[in-house]
């Protein structure tokens, strides 16, 4: 209330809501890591700046908002989703904003911080074993929906997931680089980020190279998956990815720690993997503008010990 006794709305002040802060994340340049003699620019899009702390804020809002617009859901309904962490946190936040009961299913070996964040937003957690993994979580979500226990948003098959990046992430990168981006690198989990961003960037310049990342054999990196064929996300279109690179566990973790210590960028393991791919690409090209997604913040991995070299 202002000094005249008027509320902000009555006084003509347009205050933002929390969901209006999703998107328009900063794009920053690496200062110490990378080559010095190849005239490349390595840029990181800091998606951890979103209000719930990850790139998944974008599709979480998109999936719920567009489901409302189509009449599929209404406030008070129960929503169900399988998640490895970031999507669940983001959905829990959006559900809290818009008045939904949120049930999240995840493997029990995910970090304590992720589980605590979901619970803090009021979501109910259902855990499956590490052995069942995300495949088991996805199966259970669909089984619960079949029993009438709620609606599955299904980030793996929901076109409103990549739509968020066609509308937001892609245009932002194009504008922030003034159309100079030559390479785009993203981890592939649900594949929503790379599908939507690729669609937009390729519409602006078909020569932009889109590079997706999957874990190397034996690697277990939260947020990056090598899906069995029967679980490959329905939203994935291989034609939108020019190259797929395998990321080793050690490379992802070492690069993640280097980013914190050498660049002051505190991020998660999948982001370390994405930057390690960018550094490898940096040795292969010249005069390039390489954009990499930093999908979340490092604080939600502290309890796992990955920052202890």
From TrEMBL:
The annotated pathway is: Amino-acid biosynthesis; L-cysteine biosynthesis; L-cysteine from L-serine: step 2/2
Q: Does the keyword Nucleotide-binding apply?
A: no
Instruction: Return the PROSITE patterns for the record.
Output: CYS_SYNTHASE
Per UniProt, what is one GO molecular function of this protein? Answer: cysteine synthase activity
Q: Membrane-crossing residues?
A: none
The UniProt record lists the EC number as 2.5.1.47
| Annotated protein name in UniProt | Cysteine synthase
Q: Which GO terms describe its biological process?
A: cysteine biosynthetic process from serine
Q: Which organism is it from?
A: Parendozoicomonas haliclonae
Q: Where is the Tryptophan synthase beta chain-like PALP domain?
A: 19-296
